[in-house]
Here is the input.
Amino acid sequence: MRVVVTSGKRKTAVARAVAKEGIGRVRINKIPIEIFPMELPRRIMLEPLKIAGELAKKVDIDVKVSGGGVMGQAEASRTAIARALVEFFGDEELKKAFLEYDRTLLVNDVRRKLPKLQGGRGARKRRQTSYR
Here is the structure.
């Protein structure tokens, strides 16, 4: 039996996906994706499966995701799922379809938060100055 392990990252969220032959089950932290509680993250995580179509029904994917917030975890999971499908099937057409749809399906999003700077409450905000 063939097993493929991939990962995806977004901000501080890290997702690890394990793909093996099966009947199309996808679990996020042991919760089936069909009954995942929030709708928008669920839709984000289902994107690579919809693009893959029939190929996604031949693989079981278990995703463990930690760190970050809900949307960061969803996008990290989406990248891990897409990478697992491409690596499991080795299909160039599938890879091309993913890249055409959205590059972040296969490439981690490297954007990070700007650090807080001196003289203000955050990365951009500054304390107001008085001239009189």
Observations:
- The helical segments are 39-52, 70-89, 92-101.
- The first strand starts at residue 3 and ends at 10.
- The chain has a mean pLDDT of 93.
